[in-house]
Design goal:
Layout (H helix, E strand, L loop, with lengths): L10 E4 L9 H28 L6 H30 L3 E3 H34 L4 H4 L2 H26 L9 E2 L6 H5 L7 H35 L3 H34 L3 H25 L2 H15 L1
Parallel strand pairs: 1-3
Antiparallel strand pairs: 1-2
Helix pairs in contact: 1-2, 1-9, 1-10, 2-3, 2-9, 3-5, 3-7, 3-8, 5-7, 8-9
Amino acid sequence: METGNQTRVLEFILLGLSDDTEFQPLIFGLFLSMYLVTILGNLLIIMAISSDTHLHTPMYFFLSNLSLVDICFSTTIVPQMLNNIQTGNKVIPYMDCLTQVYFSMCFPILDTLLLTVMAFDRFVAICHPLHYMVIMNPHLCGLLVFITWFIGVMISLLHISLMIELIFCKALVIPYFFCELTQILKLACSDTFLNSTLIYFMTAVLGVFPLTGILFSYSQIVLSIRKMSSSSGKQKAFSTCGSHLSVVSLFYGTGVGVYFTSAVTHSPKKVSIASVMYSVVTPMLNPFIYSLRNKDMKGALGRILSRAAS
């Protein structure tokens, strides 16, 4: 325990999206609805893929992992927020906040890497169709998923290991609806140079390299599609990539939106609202994008629903 006004913090205060008590029931209902839709939609995707042998392919294997990550990401943030609104208690214990920081970093990293792996899968499927099953064998698919989880877990642990050494001596109020790393660093009175350097470095690495890999994969895919003589082949190739491109655009678009919102405004509320799109809305929309644009997925979901109704 430090002397003076420096102390090991025991709890933080999350201000949430609004201080107006009249809006709290509306916010509670809205976020509860989005959370339930997120869980149900992604669970249906996982169930459809696991129960339908036609979907036991690398593309859907990666999609099931993406759905699992989206469930975990939403669960990391929304239940705590709902509890704070329901109880009227905005306090979150230090260890709970630390846990939320860890997982709120880990799962977006996994999202980023899984979307990159899925782009590589589409690249192999369209550019090297004759060798697809040889290249994308179960061993490689399992290894790619393991690597993505390993990177996400280790990078998040590195952030937390640096954060846990910080000393706090300011008002421990977070103007967000969840414990966000950069906001917590602003409350520290000890040196955060290493923390900030790691954030900038990892943001650059995990932002530039995966996006470069996705763009390269799709540049090669477009070149391959242009060489196809069959219009049906072109249409099929575009249809297999459309859902993934939509999810990539939504994920990176909302992420960039949060970054620029925080850069151009000093209003925590505006940044917090922008973060809702990134952390809550995107995981909710992903199942709809993949199910509505994919005939195989719609067929598998239809069979699950028909069995449940019978």
